[in-house]
Structure formats: structure tokens, C-alpha cells
Write the C-alpha cells for this entry.
Amino acid sequence: MRCILLIVWLVLPYLAPVLGALEFVGQGIKDALGEYMLTDIMTDANTGIEFADGEDGFPAFKFLSTADVKSPYQMLLPEKLYEFAILITYRQGSLKGGYLFSVVNPLDTVVQLGVHLSPVVKNSYNVTLVYALPDHSPGRKLASFAVDHVTDKWNSIAFQVYNDKVVFYYDCKVRNTTAVVRDPFVLAFESASTLYIGQAGSIIGGHFELSSNQRPATTSKQQPPTTISKLNISQHINEQYSCR
């Protein structure tokens, strides 16, 4: 027994740096691959979230009006984004719209990056890519695209964000290409910025709330909450990333 303790005592100083480094291996691999799954911040501790099955059988997350999912952006995202892609699979449940995700400045007043769904009007709504410096207006739209609203439908959208254009995919097909001026071209997040899922913070809001004609519990066809099954950002743009 003394021999075993002696071996452990001799080896432990060499293991400590390795064990400490293992904490950063996962994020290091993500940075090397340039792939970031924002749903990784979802846990059982999040309030206002219900777990469900997605269209492909993988876990999905229902967002109630009380949902409060947030994390320091540095837990999942790099400090800077150049050309990048966003891929989201969701089922729209709020006719009032809301933010699928957002990265908000430390004062919670400016969405530096996010995807917003507008209220549904005449069975359609706009999907908007928000992109801004921390000191810009809170809702600067880089590109916006119209989408038909179909109850209970799973939607797959993707943005490919280049230097001078944004390509929008809907259900794995190119729907539109919009020329843009990215100012600045490099999107640099402030160190204390916050990543939100299903909202844009306490000041800007953007929660997915059920509209008045969706609330009564007496109706058997009550619209389900907005559900997200995939929410990824990649620093590598390719055709395959528009539908995965």
C-alpha cells in the first residue's frame, strides 16, 4: 500500500497540468474545426424549457414565455467572426415572433449578432439576420427574407455570410441572395457579451410568447411553443452546411 501511495505522490505533479488542460480540449477542438453548437448551453437547470423530440429524432427544446437561457458568449463562440454560416432548425410556435438567438453587448442594449422572426402577418413572416457593432443601433438588419408560416412545420434555414453578400437557404434550397455592406467586415464581440437563446436579454426582449388567441387552455388545437432542434454557427462556408 505504501508503495502505491509513493507512486501516486511521484506521478501526481506530472498529471496535474494534463488534467487542467483537458478542461479546454473540447472548446479547443471546436475552435480548430470552426464549428459551434449553441444548444450546448441547454441544461436541466434552465427555466422555461421543455425537452422534446426533433424532426430527425434528436433532442429539441420547447421555449416557454418564461425561458431564460443565456451564457457568456466565450463559452461557445470565438472572439471574432469573419465569413461564417448559421444553420437553424425550428418549429415556429409564436405568432408574435422573437429571437432564435442573439449575442448582446454587456449593457444588454445592442444585438451584435442574432436571428429574429417577425410577427406573423397574413400567414408569412420575415427571418432577419441582425449584425452590428456594440455601439450601433440595437436592431440593425443585415438581411431579411420572407417565409411562409405553416403550423407545426419544421423549418430549416441557413445564412451564408460573405464579405459582400448573404445567401439565404430555406429547407435546403437557395431562396435569395442579398448584396450587403458589412461594417465592420470582422465582427468582434465585447468580452462581457452574453449569448441568449430564444430571446435578446431583459431590455430588448424578444421572447417567444403565445399570442392572445393561442392562450386558452380549452382549445384542443393550441399552438405548441416555439421549438428549436438545431442552432449552429460555422466559420467554414460550403454548400453542404446549408442543410445538415
Notes: Confidence is low (pLDDT under 50) at residues 1-27, 211-220. The longest strand covers residues 226-234. The chain has one domain: 35-242.
